[in-house]
Amino acid sequence: MAAEIHSRPQSRRPVLLSKVEGHQDAVSAALLIPKEDGVITAGEDRTIRVWLKRDSGQYWPSIYHTMSSPCSAMAYHHDSRRIFVGQDNGAIMEFHISEDFNKMNFVKTYPAHQNRVSAITFCLASEWVISTGHDKCVSWMCTRSGSMLGRHYFTSWASCLQYDHETQHAFVGDYSGQITLLKLEQNTCSVITTLKGHEGSITSLWWDPVQRLLFSGASDHSIIMWDIGGRKGRTLLLQGHHDKVQAICYIQLTRQLVSCSADGGIAVWNMDISREEAPQWLESDSCQKCEQPFFWNIKQMWDTKTIGLRQHHCRKCGQAVCGKCSTKRSSYPIMGFEFQVRVCDSCFESIKDEDRTSLATFHEGKHNISHMSMDISRGLMVTCGSDRIVKIWDMTPVVGCSLATGFSSR
């Protein structure tokens, strides 16, 4: 069933304001134009389009530009009206959009990668365009000269990118599930640290420079919050999606995280509470509750004349347990587990009913979502994906505040 378009907000769920259709292939990226009723989209059909809202309420393309290769990533800088479009052939093309958004002039081409561009960011202060690609590298190029300043290679495809403009630190996620923190210099870079915690490829990153928090979404359906600034090394795990997490956005004003998954799931997480860090899984040769041996513990099986059991882990305490000592399942939202997970029987007894109260809201976008972007000041969100449809949402009923005025109704 197609999502219904509402003219008035309905409480406690995203309101679909508009659907934009016209691309002939998957839409790779969509961005809301700040302070304008407009959207910029880039697609696998090799087109860049600028859509403006007409008096009829419908969005119509004011710019339709065809590229030489499928468009894979996009960055837009509103104050300078510069747009950078990454392509499947590895090139990044820069354009300048006119003030009335009816014309787009080509500026230059950057030979950034040897393969598909996966993410782009532009830093006006340094005049750098920074990008990641499927050629397993992050590159940064000078937008004044168009020349390459530096590259850093990884062992896997570089899939997503965030950049701290003040400190010149870049966060790069890759297909191995690793996040690398780099310090970029004019012609070189240094690896600061690597973050490992996901069991699947990194699909999305979001950096909040105010609280110095990094959020990562992955194909393992989970989100991790990394506390880069204060409590170094502290991580919070969020599990509530049933497909890979494609996009995330942290709203610093309301301490809420918005995430979207490939199956159309939209989640809004309350991060304005004291959450518990998920424990590290403990390893043992026998169940840490009943002391029965696990199946690889040959000596204990022989000594006790018993058959070894399969090892499991309690998500609340992290202990290695057998199936008989972990027969229960429970949600535990304060630790990020929004749906039921395995817990040992003793931990199950310690979880109260109020502990199972959800700390996130879940909504159905009713289309495949491969990319999401938010205009936080207006509480608007745009989603797009392989179904070739772009949807514009009013998120203010869900995030529970008037973002434009900074007034929270919670």
From TrEMBL:
Gene3D superfamilies named among the record's database cross-references = YVTN repeat-like/Quinoprotein amine dehydrogenase, Zinc/RING finger domain, C3HC4 (zinc finger)
Which Pfam families is this protein grouped with?
FYVE, WD40
Q: Mind telling me what this protein is named?
A: WD repeat and FYVE domain-containing protein 1
Domain of life, per UniProt, equals Eukaryota
Keyword field: Endosome, Metal-binding, Phosphoprotein, Repeat, WD repeat, Zinc, Zinc-finger
Q: SUPFAM superfamilies, alphabetically?
A: FYVE/PHD zinc finger, WD40 repeat-like
InterPro entries on file: WD40/YVTN_repeat-like_dom_sf, WD40_PAC1, WD40_repeat_CS, WD40_repeat_dom_sf, WD40_rpt, WDFY1/WDFY2, WDFY1_FYVE, Znf_FYVE
Which segments carry the WD repeats?
20-51, 195-228, 238-279
Outline what the protein does. Positively regulates TLR3- and TLR4-mediated signaling pathways by bridging the interaction between TLR3 or TLR4 and TICAM1. Promotes TLR3/4 ligand-induced activation of transcription factors IRF3 and NF-kappa-B, as well as the production of IFN-beta and inflammatory cytokines.
Q: Where is the FYVE-type domain?
A: 281-352
Name any Gene Ontology BP term: positive regulation of toll-like receptor 3 signaling pathway
- For the keyword Lipoprotein, the answer is no
Task: Please give the GO cellular component terms listed in this UniProt entry.
Answer: early endosome
- Any GO MF annotation of the entry: zinc ion binding
Question: Where in the cell is the protein located?
Answer: Early endosome
